[in-house]
Amino acid sequence: MSSESDDEQSRAPSGPPAHASRPLPRFSRIAAWAGGAAAVIAIGVGTSALIRLPGDTASGPRTFDAITVESAPTAVLPLSEPEILELLDRRPEYGPLSDPARRAGCLAGLGYPASTQILGAREITVNGHPGVLLLIPDTPAGNVIALAVAPHCSSADTGLLADTTVRRP
C-alpha cells in the first residue's frame, strides 16, 4: 500500500492550478493605471465643456435660401422662333431617330400618338447635351410644338431636354 500512497502523493497538485489568474506584470499594471487616469481626465474635460454656457448664437427664422437646393437652370432651345420655323421648309434630319419605329416609340413616350406627323427635325445641343429637335403640329391650327429630346429617346425614357410652342406667321 505504500506504493499506492506514493502514487497519490505524486499526483496531488502542488500549488495553484496552471489556469489560475496570475498577477499582472509591472508594465501591464502601469498601462492599466494610465488608461484609467486618461478616462477620468476625459470625463472631467467633457463635463466642463458641457457645463459652460454656449456663446451667442443667431436664432430666428431661417430663410429658404439657407435650406433650399438650387436646381439646374431651365433648359431653353438654342434656336430662335424664326430658326425653328425655317425647319418646316427643310427636309427633316432625324439623326439617331431616323428609324420610324424608334421615332414612334419616342412620340408615344412623350404622350403623342405614334402616327403624329413630324413637320421638321434637326440635331441640336441643349445645355451641353446632344439632342434631336422634333417639330409636331399643335392642336390649335397655326402653332408648332418644338420638342428637344435625347438621342436615346424611347417610349420608356424620352429624355425630354426642352420644349416650346411657336406660332406660325
Outline the structure in words.
With 169 residues, the protein is of the alpha+beta class. It has a domain at 81-167. Helices cover 33% and strands 18% of the residues. It contains 5 helices and 4 strands. It has helices spanning 2-11, 26-51, 64-67, 81-86, 100-109, and strands spanning 120-126, 129-137, 143-149, 160-167. A 4-stranded antiparallel sheet has the order 1-2-3-4. The longest helix has 26 residues, at 26-51. It is elongated and about 110 Å long. The chain starts with a helix and ends with a strand. The mean pLDDT is 82. Keywords: Membrane, Transmembrane, Transmembrane helix. This is Anti-sigma-M factor RsmA. The chain crosses the membrane at residues 30-53.
What's the helical proportion of residues? 25-40%
Roughly how many Å is the radius of gyration?
Answer: 41 Å
* Morphology: elongated
Question: What is the mean predicted local confidence, pLDDT?
Answer: 82
Strand percentage: 15-25%
Give the uncertain stretches in residue-range form. Answer: none
Number of strands: 4
Biggest sheet: strand arrangement: 1-2-3-4
- Order of helices and strands, N to C? HHHHHEEEE
**N-end to C-end Cα span:** 131 Å
Number of helices: 5
Biggest sheet architecture: 4 strands, antiparallel
Structural class: alpha+beta
In brief:
The protein has 169 residues and is α+β, with helices and mostly antiparallel strands. Helix content is 33%, strand content 18%.
Question: Key terms for this structure?
Answer:
33% helix, elongated, 169 residues, four-stranded antiparallel sheet, alpha+beta
Please outline the helices and strands.
Layout lengths: L1 H10 L14 H26 L12 H4 L13 H6 L13 H10 L10 E7 L2 E9 L5 E7 L10 E8 L2
Antiparallel strand pairs: 1-2, 2-3, 3-4
Keywords: Membrane, Transmembrane, Transmembrane helix
Protein name: Anti-sigma-M factor RsmA
